[in-house]
Amino acid sequence: MKVLITGFTGFVGRYLTSYLNTDPQMHLTGMTRNLKLTDSGFKAKAEQVLTKAEVIKHFEYDTIIHLAGKAHDLKINDDEREYFRANEKLTIELFDAFIKSPSAKKFIFISTVSVFEKGSEKPYTESDKPNPSTPYGISKLNAENYIREQTLPPGKTYYILRPSIIYGPGNKGNLVLLYRFLKKGIPYPLGSYENQRSFLSVENLSYILQKLCYTKVSSGIYHIADNEVLSTLDVIRIIDEAVEQKIRVLRITPGVIKLLAQFGDYLPIPFDTEKLEKLTQSFVISNQKLKNALKTDLPVNTFDGLNEMFISLETDSEKLV
After folding, report:
1. What DSSP state is assigned to residue 74?
2. What is the pLDDT of residues 219-234, one digit of tens each?
3. Which residues pair with 283 in a beta bridge?
4. Which CATH class is domain 2-235+275-320?
């Protein structure tokens, strides 16, 4: 099976490449956001830069896994146009090439749960109406809508996956920032907040992507997350156990915390109302539709997956000492 993976140099792309390279039936080709191809399971060093016309000619693949895009960024001076170029325009170009390709049968697009603006303790399902407000969420939803509006030739299918927060070895996201914050011995100040969140192990994501390459299911949108739902305090308990270091949790009145966050909206301190919302809101999604379609369950539970990630971070820290 010939598989094209776009965005193969990113966190998910690197893990997925390693995961699929153990499958003797897979022949992998990687493509970057700038339309550079690397063949032979990415072991070859040579890269070929393609024009838009050449992209279509090179689509002699069974499956395209489209990971490439611009991730959500909170930088104030970020260029919003880049989200639409990387997440919408590139996806449209690749999907058009997929439709014209005589060999490609499956197109898997990694979208985002950020198409939903606000968090919720009630699990979001695929039937819930998206309402993004950020350039990241809007650009991803625009790409989703374009894919869904096209008429597929016979024998072709698409899968739009909306993952929750992805974690795993090599990740540099918010969970790693939380780990580093607590490792400094600073007490966690948001113990008064109770939230519920869905997470996604990069191994579970890779497992599902491999299953989708081989399994015939209906085209459509599928949410993807681990089975377990955890609070931030649950995550802190896992960090506490993994690092064997007593972590202090403060239960400061939410009104005081909110006031401090409002100061951060105007002062150059690393805490504001947006960060407070991200740290304390609930955001749960249902994975049931995808599991039912594939008739499978997930190999990694969140407790074990996060524990493994934090232990690997602890091991890496010790190597640096």
Report:
1. -
2. 999 999 999 999 999 9
3. 197
4. alpha beta
